[in-house]
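Hi there,

I know you've been waiting on this one. I reran it after we fixed the sequence typo, so this is the corrected version. Both the input and the resulting structure follow.
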Amino acid sequence: MSNKSTVALLPTRPATYLRDVRKLMNIAGYRSVIEPRVDTALKINISWHFFFPAASTTPWQLDGTIRTLKADGYDPGRIHACHNRTVVIDAHLGERENKQKHVTDLHGLRNIHLYEHEEWINIRDAVGELCNDFLCLNDVYPEGFMIPRRFLGENIIHLPTVKTHVFTTMTGAMKNAFGGLLNEHRHWTHPVIHETLVDLLMLQRRIHRGVFAVMDGTFAGDGPGPRCMTPHAKNVILASSDQVAIDAVAAYLMGFDPLADVRFIRLAHERGLGRGDIREIEVRGAPELLEKRWNFVGPYKRMTFASRMQHRIYWGALKRPLEWSLKTVLAPWSYLASVLYHDFYWYPAHLARLGAALRSEWGRLFHHWERLALPADDLKSAGWDNLGEPPPEPSARSTGLAGKALRVLAAALREAPEFRKKRKGAVKA
């Protein structure tokens, strides 16, 4: 790679957001990457089915990206939203709670859940000899793994947020591909998660016509992410066709050294898959924002009980006695433990953080989103001026947490791939 990579970085606020995101995408050169004659998948991130600031794709991020594409002449019939599923995250609940479904319905887009009614094909049938270059996936999946057929030849626009992660220090564009490209046993890759993300980036570069990312930092999350974070209103947005470079700039803003602190960025940079060295990235728009870094504490200093246990299982003292169980019919114990801890304990115990964020401008925009959302054919508005009053303090009762969490817990058991595989075997017998 001889030339610098480009990352667009801009400040923003609700009143100018739509204008800002269109400027952002264009100065990042998205039209030279996203081919208008083929389908474009908008890969939505849902790190938690409940709304928690910085955890998941925001409705304004999704809305602004769609309006930009439409204003620049892209056919809405060739654009679709794209969701993956995990056993502990309910994507259908998540797209409603995070108000993404409202946006896709508003614009009349196809809304595709990859694990429902979609054909998946073996990786070797999809990319052939590229598999020989994988760093780790051949060892994790000796018989190969499945990817969605529909991804072959499609554009993809990733919609991550700026946040930390207990497995990878930070998570952004590169990790946003994780759920959509691996089968239901993707937790098998956690011990080699950095190498996995590099393999998936190689894979994306082969199968997609164009790859682009629009990253939201209106809220940014610090701490043991991607769920149990402290959100901060940072009022920035980023975009790039270089998935390594945009993650490097996001990491740098948060206060990390992209090459020293984030292994997947360094590995991808060393293999020429993108630019991870901040000196080799041209930041356009508002490069002066890099001068005031956020000095996040990161994911490891104040880890939750759940994240400490995960580290011990994948890399520490519990690896030998417990990790094997995650590849057997016993694996659902971990799904139930995750739902019980995060949905029944952590989220209701930290509603004050949510309440503080909802009183901010972005929080008020989220709370009143259905009323404030613009008509689908309005492609000229700059943003949202009148954000309404701050909402009342959230409570477990007002948010209906108990009922929702119980349904997620039941679904985690019902949808556990280990149990579904046994049921399929019983039916065949």
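Quick highlight: The chain has a mean pLDDT of 94.

Best,
R. S.
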